[in-house]
Amino acid sequence: MKKLINAADAVLAESLAGFGKAHADLVEVSQEPRYVIRRGGGRPGKVALVSGGGSGHEPMHAGFVGTGMLDAACPGEVFTSPTPDQMIVAAEAVDGGAGTLFIVKNYAGDVMNFEMAAEMLDGESATILTNDDVAVESSTHSQGRRGVAATVIVEKIVGAAAERGDDLAALKALGDRVNAASGTMGVALSSCTVPAAGRPTFDLGPDEIEMGVGIHGEPGRRRETIRPVDALVEDMFRAIQKEIAPEGEVLLLVNGMGGTPLLELYLVYEAVAKLCAKEGLTIARSLVGNYCTSLEMQGCSVTLTKLDAEMKTLWDAPVHTAALRW
Amino acid sequence: MKKLINAADAVLAESLAGFGKAHADLVEVSQEPRYVIRRGGGRPGKVALVSGGGSGHEPMHAGFVGTGMLDAACPGEVFTSPTPDQMIVAAEAVDGGAGTLFIVKNYAGDVMNFEMAAEMLDGESATILTNDDVAVESSTHSQGRRGVAATVIVEKIVGAAAERGDDLAALKALGDRVNAASGTMGVALSSCTVPAAGRPTFDLGPDEIEMGVGIHGEPGRRRETIRPVDALVEDMFRAIQKEIAPEGEVLLLVNGMGGTPLLELYLVYEAVAKLCAKEGLTIARSLVGNYCTSLEMQGCSVTLTKLDAEMKTLWDAPVHTAALRW
Amino acid sequence: MSTETIIKAAEAARAAIVANESEIEHLDRAIGDGDHFINIRRGADTIIALAPELDGKTPSEALKAIAMKLMSTIGGASGPLISSFFLAASKTEGIDAPWTAETVARLTEDGVAAIQKRGKAGLGHKTMLDVLIPVAEALKAGAAAGEDAAALGARVVETAAAGKDSTRDLTAHYGRAAFLGERAIGTVDPGAMSSYVIIRAIVEAR
Amino acid sequence: MSTETIIKAAEAARAAIVANESEIEHLDRAIGDGDHFINIRRGADTIIALAPELDGKTPSEALKAIAMKLMSTIGGASGPLISSFFLAASKTEGIDAPWTAETVARLTEDGVAAIQKRGKAGLGHKTMLDVLIPVAEALKAGAAAGEDAAALGARVVETAAAGKDSTRDLTAHYGRAAFLGERAIGTVDPGAMSSYVIIRAIVEAR
Ligand SMILES: Nc1ncnc2c1ncn2[C@@H]1O[C@H](COP(=O)(O)OP(=O)(O)O)[C@@H](O)[C@H]1O
Ligand SMILES: Nc1ncnc2c1ncn2[C@@H]1O[C@H](COP(=O)(O)OP(=O)(O)O)[C@@H](O)[C@H]1O
Ligand SMILES: [Mg+2]
Ligand SMILES: [Mg+2]
Ligand SMILES: [Mg+2]
Ligand SMILES: [Mg+2]
Q1: Among C31, C33, C117, which would you mutate to test the A interface (most chain A Cβ atoms within 10 Å of its Cβ)?
Q2: Model pLDDT, residue D34
Q3: Confidence label for C200 from pLDDT (cuts 50, 70 and 90)
Q4: Nearest alpha-carbon partner for A54 in A98, A86, A93, A91
Q5: Are A142 and C125 inside 8 Å of each other by CB?
Q6: Is the pLDDT of residue B139 over 60?
Q7: CA nearest D32: which of B303, B146, B298?
Q8: Is D35 close to ligand 2, i.e. is its CB under 6 Å away?
Q9: What percent of chain D has pLDDT over 70?
Q10: Whole-angstrom distance, CA of residue A162 vs CA of residue A170
């Protein structure tokens, strides 16, 4: 394993320290317990948005802390859910007296840890579970689908609504709506390597890809031989289409898994754009880049969100975070 | 070679098409000859900033076209300089009657192609050659040092000055000043693979790194065994320090080569920040992310620019491009 | 004395976890995300590091302190589950009286029930519960029947092994392996494997 | 007739480039960025594709059209250098009269001078010029001495080979290999190699 690190068990602390220094104008970082909050903490009267999850998906979530998006993020160890104590202290630090909204990706660990935090937290709270990954048919498991890149879209849109003063119930409903309107499908060309594990999470042959991969390197629909990107993207597009049946205007997120050149991400964008044109869909908003990553994995995910007028307004609303700004 | 592409010789055209669609509000893309210009073209009375170079370094340069930065970018084939016809047509498309400033990274091919363009272009022009790569001692070659990540800083600062109305001579002087105040050193943990070549540009053993690597995978100072990032960064820092002797305030750019997780880039930031503190340097401005990449190469570069008050003001000035925005 | 038992069990568990590192890691890499080994080792380390603080505490206090500490150190899916086990065990009836086979059976039953409540999974869902539920039942039955310690220990280990093996042919309904559908068949659940290994070590260390 | 000669030469060059792909690519991967093979093949393809348009043009017109087209298709370091060669050759004295050995010597001399002017490098700098400068001199001397075509051809190939080999022990002063310093020693310059291969092919095709 070659990584730009000092020691596997110091990765998170040191990276977070650097993040805090690089964005000292935007955030405050706590190491013990670990969390990142908006500089200055909570805004009175505003619902506090708190997210979190295992590390290794940067910029998600700490990179989305700031005006118009998250109030706090709790990073766990790499690919390991954070713990309730982090969430509770972070939620208290950004409490504005209007309740706490947890945004949680649907993984057993995250769900249970956030559940415990919600149970122990004083004050009102609600939770949005994102589960946009259409790779695995939901009928086969009781856990439901995985939460992946659409979490970024949920955090942006709900963040904008929280900033304008929406209440907890409205935000929870909005987040559920954005999540339900979204579908994501990913593909891996190479594995990632968890620092503490020291070797690749999975092995792919020189021509193999994992179609439907999860953002922790979890297997997807099938292992197959690499094909031209137009063919891969068509499969991904159809899988999403089947689940969310998009029509009219969509938001397109072409998300790099961490090790994919931007040159290729724009090529993927072009492939999706051609399909959208064919299907009569308008890409009304879009985002291309590394937003919900899987360490150094090569590959990408494609997310489509069916847009309505309110979502568009909220998407366009100002945001000022380390990773998203307009 | 596994890549998200259709065919090696279609990479550039398709990626550029996607880029144009994803950022249609900001840019216009021409395929024949290939260039990207600010939506709407030239601003009367403003010096036009035109850059370009081989592709594979995205977001550089097309991602920096927009308000407050470049007026045009000319992408060549992957790692191959663009040609004079591209530069001439692009320069004409953004001409504001106040002259053209070419920003060129110091490589034989880029220098000669831009030189030919400048010779053939009607109207006044000047050229800034960036040569910030301190990896190779300049005494050993007549070509001078390579231009790498500081090009982003030159483009940002000179772009802001052009936007406020500085004339050609002033911009040229400013760009040369920023370039001279900058030093960069890179390190590779893995090679990149040029799509047309189909295999890695160089081979590294499982524990080997290339210290001082170029952004085309050119060899650097030495091949060595990976060490903790603090030790690697110390070597990089010293190499830069020796060349530019920073004091007071600096801008720190921690640049990913394309395949490095953001988690690691912030860890590198932390390592540099510790050294800066030790040396009494203040990191007054900073940027962390993939800005001047080398396809999917794993690794990073560290750039320091000695800042003065004017540079800081210009760095802070608004910018609105695909890859940089504030 | 029973608090010492807890530390001793944690030490035995840690040794067993480390001894079976490659097996556990291999399984979570195959059908999870590869970190289960690290998570549970962190859990065992945490309990051992807590030992000085536990000194002189009653079992209920010690188990509760362990639960809270594990809750904030393990993370992942196993963190809440394992800490729920300890929290429930700390409230088990008679936990501060001298421990008998019945005490152990009761705390196990309560702990396993808490895991079920937290994780919503049950028998046959290809999780650690496929080991823990039958083990809790075996302990209860053995304690009720007054079985001697050696025989009961052997039966528990046998039950755990069978439970662990039973996960091989299952598809998962909870946890990361659930996302695999049919592809999880053929691989033992990592949490079931680590539970088996830990239980065996604790029995053997007794 | 002489325009046909140019096309014929380009076809011979292309075949030689392709036949030596791995060698040329290997060298540019070792001390450059690995694309030299692709760049010069693109150059040869461009000339060949231009053939229909060149039909009926004078050599000066044809060479100029080739220069402009190469300028906009090769790119990299070799693009400006090679197109400068053709642009200068198009202006060579007597280029539109029937070609003699002297014409070829003159156009080569002019072309090579243009490469020197554009790239600022000279002999011993580990570039294509270490082949081209001696070859231009050999052509000039041979033509002046009235050497017969076969002997001159052999001498040119020999000179090119020696020039190419001479780059092996040099450090580079221009181009990407310059960044390597001492580490470039031991590897032949890719541009020198391709120049040699092309010159040999053109001589043999004559
Ligand atoms: N809902 C659940 N109920 C019981 N056990 C579960 C549940 N979800 C997961 N597990 C267990 O947790 C194990 C994985 O733990 P671990 O790897 O530490 O966490 P994560 O899956 O978050 O990486 C699985 O092998 C399984 O035995
Ligand atoms: N200044 C120069 N003068 C003459 N030849 C040069 C010069 N710079 C580079 N070259 C030649 O160009 C070759 C590399 O060409 P190529 O790989 O096509 O371009 P690039 O270096 O831009 O990738 C070198 O091997 C060398 O022979
Ligand atoms: Mg995990
Ligand atoms: Mg090149
Ligand atoms: Mg796991
Ligand atoms: Mg080259």
Answers
A1: C33
A2: 81
A3: very high
A4: A86
A5: yes
A6: no
A7: B146
A8: yes
A9: 100
A10: 9
CATH of the domain at D9: 1.25.40.340
Q: Which residues of B touch D178 (CB under 8 A)?
A: 140-143
Note whether A71 and A92 are within 8 A (CB): no
CA angle B48, B53, B58 (to 5 degrees): 100
- Helix D78-90 crosses helix D36-54 at what angle (to 10 degrees)? 30
Burial of D148 (0-12, 13-18, 19+ CB in 10 A): exposed
The continuous run of DSSP H or E covering C19 comes out as helix C2-19
Asked if C27 and C189 count as a contact pair (C-beta separation under 8 A), the reply is yes
Q: What tens digit of pLDDT does each residue of B212-241 get?
A: 999 999 888 899 999 999 999 999 999 999
Pocket of ligand 1 contains residue C54 by CB under 6 Å = no
Say how many Å lie between the CA of residue C77 and the centre of ligand 3.
Answer: 7
Residue C2 pLDDT class (50, 70, 90 cuts): confident
List the domain range (segments joined by +) for residue C50: 3-205
Q: Cα–chain-centroid distance for residue B175?
A: 13
Does any CB of chain C come closer than 8 Å to the CB of residue A89?
A: no
Residues of A assigned a catalytic role? 57, 216
Q: Identity (one letter) of the amino acid at B299?
A: G
Amino acid at the residue A91:
A
Burial readout B77-97 (b: 16 or more C-beta within 10 A, e: otherwise) = bbbbbbbbbbbbbbbbbbbbe
**CA B74 to chain CA centroid, nearest Å:** 13
Residue of chain B whose Cα is closest to the Cα of A231: B6
Q: Write the CATH number of the domain with boundaries A182-315.
A: 3.30.1180.20
CA angle at residue C91 from C88 to C93, to 5 degrees? Answer: 120
User: Can you count the helices (H) and strands (E) in chain B?
Assistant: 8, 14
Contact A262 B18 (CB under 8 A): no
> Shortest Cα distance from A51 to chain C (angstroms)?
15
CB pairs under 8 A between A and C: 120
Q: The CATH number of B8-181 is which of 3.40.430.10, 3.40.50.10440, 2.40.50.140, 2.40.10.220?
A: 3.40.50.10440
**CB of D39 shorter than 6 A to ligand 2:** yes
Tokens linked to B101: 């400033």
Q: What is the pLDDT of residue C107?
A: 96
Q: Which of A65-74, B304-313, D7-16 has the lowest mean pLDDT?
A: D7-16
How far is the CA of A173 from the CAs of A168, A169, A177, in angstroms? 9, 6, 6
Identify the pLDDT of residue A139. Answer: 55
Give residue A217 CA to ligand 5 midpoint distance, Å.
11
> How far A4 CA sits from the closest chain B CA (Å)?
5
The pLDDT tens digits for D71-120 are 999 988 999 999 999 999 999 999 999 999 999 999 999 999 999 999 99
Residue with tokens 């000043």: B177
Cα B9 off chain centre by:
24
Least confident of A305-319, C176-190, D83-97: C176-190
Domain definitions of chain B by residue range: 8-181, 182-315
**Residues B144-200 pLDDT 10s:** 899 999 999 999 999 999 999 999 999 999 999 999 999 999 999 999 999 988 989
Quickly count: other Cβ atoms within 10 Å of residue B25's Cβ. 9
| Residue of B4, B295, B325 with shortest CB distance to A300 | B4
Of all protein residues, whose CA lies closest to atom 24 belonging to ligand 1? Answer: C191
Which chain D residues are within 8 Å of B146, Cβ to Cβ?
179
Residue in A55, A77, A191 to test binding to C, most C beta-carbons within 10 Å? A77
If one counts the domains in chain C, the total is 1
Pairwise CA distance, residues B283 & B302, whole Å: 13
